[in-house]
Amino acid sequence: MWLIAVLTCCEMALGTLTPALHLRQGRLRGWSTPNRESYYSIPYATAKRFQAAGPPPSWQGVLLALTAGPACAQALYPVTLGREDCLHLDVHVPRGTRASVLRPVMVFLHGGAYYHGTKAHYGPAWLIRHGVVVVVPNYRLGALGFLCVDNVANLGLKDQAAALRWIRDNIAFFGGDPDNVTLFGQSAGASAVGLHMLSPMSAGLFHKAILESGSPLAPWALNPDPMTPAKRDVLKLGKDTDDPQEIVKTFSRASLEELLASTWDTSIDTKYFKYSPCVENASSTENPFLTAAPYDILMSSQFNKVPAIIGFVDLEGLLFYGLHNERTLVEMEENFPQNLPAVFEQCSKRVKQNISSELYAHYFESRPLRANAEGLVRYYSDWVALSSLPAYAALLARTSRRSVYSYVFSYEGNRNFAKWVFGRNVKMNGATHSDDLFYIFQPLGLPLALSSADQLFVDRFTSMWTNFAKTGDPTPETSELIPMRWPVVPADGQERMPTLRLGRRLKVTSVDARRAAPLWRRLLCAYGHRGSAEGCMLHVNACYNQPPTEQAIRSHGTPTLLLLSPVLVSPASGLESLYRHTPSTFPAPKF
């Protein structure tokens, strides 16, 4: 954080103060550089611990919005960063922007597993030069933002919604168009974008969406059992209880350092997202954000229907492999059933062992993990992205009847920082999780080299993203820079959907949404729903796009979710009656 402050000060040395802007909260001045005007750390809401964001604060005099400000409180063991008073956002506009000609607005939600991250890491210069306004908010993280017990739930998502309301009410003062807002995010930020598409709280606050390496149907996007980690962590504070109110009281009384230490998660398996969004009970939560399973909301057609770009990088799992060392690989291998994703947490030991055996045989061919890098990369890649993103794109095209564009990012250049850090010892071609960010943003404090090929790709990539923000079409016309049109995903449930490969050359390929990561989806459909004879918990996204076997149906109950593609459920199959949609535990949201 000290480095960010220094770099911000260095930027100031090259510019001057902007004229004062008059907002509803008060007057403020930002920093003007040769190409843009930036207003840092503007408070968009107030919040007390475990309470929803309140109205934005006002101030006297002129607020000098010149420095990055604090991150939201988070642990980077053994240190902690940030503070709880963190609901601020940065606004960046092309220099010379005036309110008389409003520009498209792009709002970025950072990733970080709902545990880490800050708005200060995303330098927007490459987007700004295309004539858009860029806004990056902070939101509460970890237990402070995603504890889900009693009437406390999804506070981080509600923070984001508060930021979107602030943008609606104030962005015109900066020259941004409140009626042309694109919400985009990466990883956990992308799943959050997808959840805003499903929440009545965010209705009308944005008009397009870009989801990079995440979706609300990802198996890790929601916590199916949020009480379990809360009970475990409150015990570290000396309170042995399963009373939701007592859990909230104990966490509320703890100091910030105690709270972060007790809720810090050092695991790097697929249970990593232990504090993450959840489905709320509308009867017990005041002003809920999400009251039904994402799949059920999509199938109800009662959601915020906007054009969308959806995609992933081709080696998503390489980053997660790189987080391991030999010790953690041995531990994962020796305790594989215990390291299954949280969606299988409530399954019996026997079922966990069966799931583990299938996964291990499929991905690792019974070889030691430490001798099977490619298998582990495929394991994580399918879990993070392929088990959900192609199906989500196809489902969204079908249910929204809006333009949906599918992509795979595979570009390799000097700025593939995540691959350089986490995949240096693995000889696999492609990009890994987060590499795409380094071709959209210029991370502060990370002066990565830029070759002529990299510059061409940056120009092409950011042109498509900003074209979409402006018009809803990433390739409204062909040019030397972008020599082809990007086809939309058909809304008629075709088996294969056109997908743009973003590499050194643009190439339209096709992806079969039904056959991506089939083992993961078969296991989710067989074991990840309520009513299983083995006692497995509801997997709120289960059974889209992949029918369970007849044996699984007989043994584990009937899935409650309608399948994605009608071709999978025909009267001739004899299984039609088993797949009819039944109501979710919670009603579909009202818009």
TrEMBL record:
Residue ranges constituting the Carboxylesterase type B domain according to the UniProt record: 19-506
Membership in a protein family: Belongs to the 'GDXG' lipolytic enzyme family. Belongs to the type-B carboxylesterase/lipase family.
Pfam families: COesterase
Enzyme class: hydrolase
Highest taxon of the lineage: Eukaryota
UniProt keyword list: Disulfide bond, Glycoprotein, Hydrolase, Serine esterase, Signal
Species this protein is from: Eumeta variegata
Any one Gene Ontology molecular-function term assigned to this protein's record: carboxylic ester hydrolase activity
EC numbers: 3.1.1.-
Cross-referenced PROSITE patterns: CARBOXYLESTERASE_B_1, LIPASE_GDXG_HIS
Record has Ribonucleoprotein as a keyword: no
InterPro entries membership: AB_hydrolase_fold, CarbesteraseB, Carboxylesterase_B_AS, Lipase_GDXG_HIS_AS
Gene3D superfamilies according to UniProt: alpha/beta hydrolase (3.40.50.1820)
Signal peptide: 1-15
Keyword hit for Flavoprotein: no
UniProt protein name: Carboxylic ester hydrolase
